[in-house]
């Protein structure tokens, strides 16, 4: 692998998961994550996908997100609510607390820095 890495999931087996049971508010959300890059255990990049449902989120990390498909609502405990869909890009900063609700299966590109 060279120094220029494509965010390409071809041949990458996705990790499957769910939110912790005590965080689920509604539905039966399921995750698939294709992590294509890990740098020094502190930076990760790849593709994440979630099926419909709503759960609590708490961020200790910094994350850049670019929505590829689907529709979700991210609501902060501070009252700010944002509906995101294909083409939207945003950053979630450490300390963000709230909910993530997937209305239509959502797929995003991400870069996470711990």
Automatic annotation (TrEMBL):
Q: List the InterPro entries.
A: RmlC-like_jellyroll (IPR014710), RmlC_Cupin_sf (IPR011051), UGlyAH_Cupin_dom (IPR008579)
Q: Where is this region: Disordered?
A: 1-24
Regions that span the bilayer? none
Signal peptide (UniProt feature, chain positions): none
Domain (S)-ureidoglycine aminohydrolase cupin: start-end pairs: 38-110
What highest taxon heads this organism's lineage?
Bacteria
Record protein name field: Cupin domain-containing protein
């Amino acid at each position: 692998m060279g120094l220029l890495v494509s965010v390409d999931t071809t041949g990458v087996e996705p990790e499957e998961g769910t939110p912790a049971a005590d965080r689920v508010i509604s539905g039966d959300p399921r995750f698939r994550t294709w992590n294509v890059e890990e740098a020094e255990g502190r930076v990760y990049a790849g593709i994440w996908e979630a099926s419909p449902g709503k759960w609590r989120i708490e961020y200790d990390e910094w994350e850049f997100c670019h929505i590829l498909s689907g529709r979700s609502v991210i609501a902060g405990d501070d009252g700010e609510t944002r509906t995101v869909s294909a083409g939207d890009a945003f950053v979630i900063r450490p300390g963000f607390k709230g909910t993530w609700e997937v209305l239509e299966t959502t797929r995003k590109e991400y870069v996470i820095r711990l």
